[in-house]
Known about the structure:
Elements: H1 11-26, H2 34-48, H3 55-71, H4 76-83, H5 89-102, H6 107-115, H7 121-136, H8 143-146, H9 152-164, H10 177-184
Helix pairs in contact: 1-2, 1-7, 2-3, 3-5, 4-5, 5-6, 5-7, 6-7
Amino acid sequence: MNPYGSDSVGYLPSVILVHVIYHYIYRSDSPTSLKEVILDALNTVQELYRGEKYLTELTDIVLKAIDLAENGAEKDLDNIHQLGEGWVAEETLGISLYCALRYQDDFSAGVIAAVNHRGDSDSTGAVTGNILGAMLGYQAIEEKWKKDLELSDIILEVADDLCHGCQIYKHGHYRDPEWEAKYLNMHRPV
């Protein structure tokens, strides 16, 4: 039993998060709202993992996050605490979805809301930042978040590499010496 509450299965919330981010990185030509993308992700998880004992709990928190973001007249802190504290994956996802939905046009406001609560705020802030960053793009992130960022050149290089993908496959014949050096041999060219 998890000491923080529910006995969570972290891969289910992860599938939803990856689905949402994938949509905005690789299917950006589709003008789908964040709510529609989240509901599509939830439907996909429900189909793929039908019968999983934690699916109902995850579904409830995702739907509650959507409802609170759309209808929550309370302060962000009160709404966030209705979703939990972020100590387990489904709470982290719920809080992050709430903040991203509530502030989907304002990276700073979304991240600030995500980190100002009494729970696992670094996790909720990171997940919210991933969602809003994927949705809004690098240019929409205020300079104050990018200025003086430690290892920013490496972070941007890895982000660019992830975005553009690699053609190397386990049983393929394509070779990319730069990718092999960086990601297989863990040696970054100088």
